[in-house]
Amino acid sequence: MAFVALVFSVVALVHYYLWRRLVRATTVPGRTRRVLTWVLAGLGVLVPVTLIGSRSAWGHFLAWPGFFWIAVMFYLFVFLVALEIPRAAALLALRRSERARRPSRPAPAASATPRPVPAASATPAAASVMPVPAASASSGPDPAGPSRLPDSGGTFREGSEGGAGAMGRRLFIARTAAAVAGAGALTTVGFGIRTALGDPVVESVKVTLPRLDPRLSGLRFAVVSDIHLGPLTGMRHSERIVRMINSLEADVVAIVGDLVDGTVAELGPLARPLKSLESRYGAYFVTGNHEYYTANGPGEWVEELRQLGVRPLRNERVEIGHAGAVLDLAGVDDVTGGASGDGPDHERALGGRDRSRSAILLAHQPVQAFQASKYGVDLQLSGHTHGGQMVPFDMVVPLQQPVVSGLGEVDGTQVYVTRGAGFWGPPVRVGAPPEITLLELRA
Fold it and tell me: Which among 197, 224, 345, 366 could disulfide-bond with 315, CB atoms 3.0 to 4.6 Å apart, if both were Cys?
């Protein structure tokens, strides 16, 4: 509950910031500002409703509009924050320009004693000259006072024609920043949707394992993770992934978690193409955190995958025999299951094995490598991170996971993290295209 409250608080603060920059700073009080305020408030409510409702069948219709707005909201925030410095510089330059153009007050004239006019020289014409009123001759302010002009925040202030121009320039700066942020956000999200819904990139990786039996050199794994079958994917998503995996002609297929975002009743048909997976030594699966988020838990998907010919490895290991040599392939449940007593058990999966031969572990989260290293695991295959999915999230992931994407090392155990073949939440990938990995072992 604390985490949910934190997420909702962040969403509320982000929308308030967007209102300040996109509505309040770019409009004057009136109908337009009121309408835009209510629209933004409605979009703010859409975010939590989507995050909660899209997990249920009744809320699937919210997925596209809700997650699309979440992506646009995020990149609007990113672009507006990036524009804060140039925006502040432009406003500073405007204030300096206003001060430079502001007329200086004239110095008071020195009083002079008028020369007396000789009486003899006075003429009727001179005597008829009327004195000029001091107020008319003065260059001081208009007695009517300065005009009152609305500023960009909607309040009224004292001003003049110069003040009206300054207000217009402030509005221009605010509206320009809003337009740039809007164009940047929509362009980025559009590009990200195209990437997310397109074909995954096939990454070819060779990993050297010092203890690998030379006879196992050349053994190939097709690694895929985070397929995320759900309300925003269809049968073509599943079929394309299976087709691409089969084209790799791998010896082993490893599905390292987060296959689904729903129940078997909802998404079972989308998983059926997995029955067509082809490999020499079989296809294997370990649970990810999203399998535990489904209404019925991971158990029903474990049984469904067995029916489809994919073997779940739930804290267990198998032997892969190849060219007369043997490799240990183990799998552990995701750490999310620990809260319900259904989490990873490395001792059960790896304890008592022959450590003279290499072991590969399937574990959804890279952080599980800290435990795997204690059991002499040579290589852990993971997913979970999506490679960040949307830049700049890739800079946040290292706060939780030791490897974001690609090949890394944790306490002597090599870890390969695939970016995943699908997406979660917004159907958007920026800077982290979807991936299927062909990993080849080398001695």
Answer: 345
